[in-house]
Design goal:
The complex is a heterodimer of chains A (about 280) and B (about 270).
Chain A lengths: L6 E10 L3 E11 L4 E6 L5 H5 L10 E6 L2 E2 L5 H4 L3 E4 L12 H11 L4 H14 L15 H13 L5 E5 L7 H16 L3 E5 L3 H7 L2 E6 L2 E6 L1 H4 L3 H6 L6 H11 L9 H16 L1
Parallel strand pairs in A: 3-8, 3-9, 6-7, 7-8
Antiparallel strand pairs in A: 1-2, 1-4, 4-5, 9-10
Helix pairs in contact in A: 3-4, 3-5
Chain B lengths: L10 H4 L2 H17 L3 H17 L4 H25 L5 E5 L2 E4 H27 L2 H10 L4 H30 L9 H32 L19 H24 L11
Antiparallel strand pairs in B: 1-2
Helix pairs in contact in B: 2-5, 2-9, 3-5, 4-5, 6-7, 7-8
The chains are: A alpha/beta (about 280), B mainly alpha (about 270).
Chain lengths: ~280, ~270
């Protein structure tokens, strides 16, 4: 079981160039072993905030702590041992001639001995079902596979916290569901997962907590259940909950106690209510 | 930054792209034949005035200078060290610094800066459509002109991609702290490979996107939203450029102005 550190961002301010203040006092914690989703409009500061957790960006004001220690003094290269980042575009993070070498690159940068590197590569290939493509060039693979390779390449570094920047964008339902099942498995091993996404279905189904960003700040956070009920938040951040959640919410307002966020959970609640009524 | 163009309404902005291109086309060989550092410093001063007159912020000049300066200084140093000429001024160990070497080095460094600034004056004050239109009206086939425009348009994109890619490398545990020179270049190599791959992908997609938007359609002549045309004033600018060029040529080849790195006039 992995013991993930606790990450905390306190009052972060950050600007790209002179004109655009991407973060304006953002606060967010990543608790040990949680599955946190960050949602919000394009340009609300999700990626910018997430890139502060491994020091890719450094705040103009505010600080980030890892288990209570300020990370300002630590390089991204060092932080990578604990905080992994899967970029939005897999092509930006695939460097090597073959998939195998791609998975080995991170562990090699970390200075692990060749035997350990080999072990991690094998386990990475196996965990993500990439054995068939081990010797292929990652550039020649399909988008879905390139995405998987980019996740596996971070997985082999065994970071306790894994940040996923829109991991399912451009994937069809089957591939997305498969990828998500890998994340669930990692989460159950103790990895903290931080997922930036626009897909509220994913939030409803997988996240244990969700943070809503708007104009460079975290404007609300909590269990998806609670957040999806807060109309003013949804409206301000232009978020539309999944239809099934919206249906349950309206029925809840009408007096039916439907609490779930997924079709299965709501069906379960409904049948329970009906059973009680027939009693 | 999406492109080099800095929006503005100055006389240089409004001048026909071809006039500005003529200025570049004349100034580059001009800068190449002039050898005296003071003359080249004068050219820098003139360029500086033009930048100010175009209303370009000092940060833009500084950005160009900052990019070119390291190369410029390096060339200056190499020239001064390896091509001794004339009386010695200073000897440090095996290094013999000479008046001629220093002057030639200074000329080389200043020339490079001036060339960059003259090209960027054109790029900063001309929209890429203008550059392409200008090139095409000068007889360049349209696809070539488009290529030039696209190349310029994609330089900043390329730089952005490169930044993301090095970020991705650092996120994978690459520690760049305290590494320099060759070692740094070696560890960054995978980043360049990724940049190439992603650039090829971009260019392939771009080609398809262009075709999907009827690039190269047969039997039609493309039209233009904003065509360029010479105004009387542009002819005046062109005449002025020609006059200055002619004067320089005369002074240089007849009187030897700026021909020697050490003497202004023989």
């Amino acid at each position: 079981m992995i013991e993930a550190p606790r990450l905390a961002a306190v009052d972060l301010w950050f600007s790209y160039g002179e004109h655009y203040a991407a973060l304006q006092g953002a606060d967010l914690n990543v608790e040990q072993g949680e599955f946190l989703a960050i949602v919000g409009q394009n340009g609300s500061g999700k990626s910018t905030l997430a890139k502060h957790f491994n020091g890719l960006l450094r705040p103009a004001k505010g600080r980030v702590t890892l288990d209570g220690l300020d990370i300002a003094e630590q390089s991204t290269g060092r932080l990578a041992r604990q905080v992994g980042y899967v970029f939005q575009n897999p092509d930006h993070q695939l460097f090597c001639p073959t998939v195998k070498e791609e998975l080995a690159l991170g562990p090699q940068y970390l200075g692990l001995d060749p035997v350990e590197v080999q072990e991690r590569v094998e386990s990475g290939l196996q965990a993500f079902g990439l054995q068939r493509w081990a010797d292929r060039g990652s550039g020649t693979l399909s988008f879905g596979l390139r995405r998987k390779v980019s996740v596996a390449a971070v997985f082999t570094m065994r970071p306790a916290v894994i940040i996923l920047d829109e991991p399912t964008t451009g994937l069809e339902w089957g591939s997305a569901a498969e990828l998500m099942s890998h994340f669930v498995a990692l989460n159950s091993q103790g990895h903290s997962m931080v997922m930036i996404t626009h897909d509220m279905q994913l939030v409803a189904r997988y996240a244990s907590r969700v943070a809503v960003m708007s104009e460079g700040r975290v404007v609300a956070q909590g269990e998806p259940q609670q957040i999806f009920r807060r109309e003013e938040v949804l409206h301000a951040a232009r978020i539309q909950p999944p239809q099934i959640v919206e249906l349950a919410r309206q029925l809840y307002a009408a007096g039916l106690e439907l609490e779930g966020l997924t079709v299965e959970a709501i069906c379960h609640d409904y049948l329970r209510l009906q059973g009680a009524a027939l009693g | 930054m999406v492109e080099f163009y800095v929006p503005g309404e100055s006389w240089i902005h409004r001048a026909d792209p071809r006039v500005k291109f003529a200025l570049v086309a004349v100034s580059i060989p001009g800068l190449l034949i002039l050898q005296h550092p003071l003359v080249l410093a004068g050219a820098l001063l003139v360029l500086n005035l033009l930048y100010t007159s175009a209303g370009l912020p000092a940060t833009k000049i500084w950005r160009v200078v900052r990019t070119i300066l390291p190369v410029s200084l390096l060339m200056m140093a190499l020239r001064a060290i390896f091509y001794p000429l004339g009386p010695e001024v200073l000897t440090v160990g095996p290094l013999h610094l000479t008046v001629g070497g220093l002057a030639q080095g200074a000329a080389l460094g200043l020339r490079l800066l001036a060339m960059a600034l003259s090209i960027f004056l054109w790029l900063f004050t001309t929209q890429s459509q203008g550059i392409v239109r200008g090139m095409v009206k000068l007889g360049l086939p349209y696809p070539w002109g488009l290529s030039v425009g696209l190349a310029l348009r994609f330089i900043p994109t390329l730089r952005e991609s490169y930044e993301t890619i090095t970020q991705a490398q650092r996120a994978r545990g690459l520690d760049l702290e305290g590494t320099g020179g060759l070692r740094r270049a070696r560890v960054l190599l995978p980043g360049f490979v990724a940049l190439m791959v992603s650039s090829f992908r971009t260019s392939e997609n771009l080609a398809r996107a262009l075709e999907a938007r009827a690039f190269g359609a047969r039997g039609v002549r493309r039209s233009y939203l904003a065509d360029i045309a010479f105004r009387p004033l542009d002819w005046v600018y062109l005449l002025l450029i020609a006059l200055v060029a002619a004067a320089l040529l005369f002074l240089h080849f007849r009187l030897g102005f700026g021909a020697d790195p050490l003497r202004l006039l023989p």
